[in-house]
Write a structure and sequence with these properties.
Blueprint (H helix, E strand, L loop, with lengths): L1 H12 L4 H27 L11 H39 L18 H39 L3
Helix pairs in contact: 1-4, 2-3, 3-4
Length: about 150
């Protein structure tokens, strides 16, 4: 679904202003820093905080938190990879194009070679941005759950 949205966006819009690209790069850089800080938090967290509990339910809660920590680590790692690729593809759409004669055959319906290349880059970067925002949503849900269990009323 996200891929269809990104292709439709690239066909309809065709170009993204430079200011919008720099804003997206800045946003992803900030979120990437958040992602790395979450990974470092997970790596340095003391896991044996309440290991001497007398209740059976506390052991189950600790097992659930450990599972959520593991899922969070993989979700944040996936987000970081997507954010890096998003930044890379947006930067690639900002670089001037070199004309390659072999690919002139692909043009026609899409317009010129430059338009085809720019729209393909926009479709790829839009897909990566949407997918990374979706994965960031799941990261926030898991972080909220962990903080609620750690600092909240369980």
């Amino acid at each position: 679904m996200l891929f269809v949205i990104s292709i439709a966006y690239a066909i309809i819009i065709g170009k993204i202003p430079l200011d919008a690209k720099t804003n997206v790069i800045t946003t992803f850089s900030i979120l990437l820093g958040f992602g790395f800080s979450v990974i470092f938090f997970l790596g340095t967290e003391n896991k044996s905080e309440n290991s001497h509990s007398i209740y059976l339910e506390d052991a189950e809660i600790e097992n659930r938190k450990a599972t959520v920590r593991k899922e969070l680590f993989y979700n944040v790692s996936y987000f970081n990879i997507l954010a890096l690729f998003s930044i890379f593809t947006i930067i690639m759409t900002m670089i001037p194009l070199v004309r390659i004669a072999k690919f002139e055959v692909l043009t026609g319906f899409w317009g010129t070679y430059e338009e085809l290349t720019v729209r393909t880059g926009i479709a790829i970067s839009t897909f990566l941005c949407l997918e990374s925002f979706y994965s960031f949503y799941w990261v926030l849900r898991k972080v909220t759950y962990l903080f609620d269990k750690k600092f909240g009323n369980s």
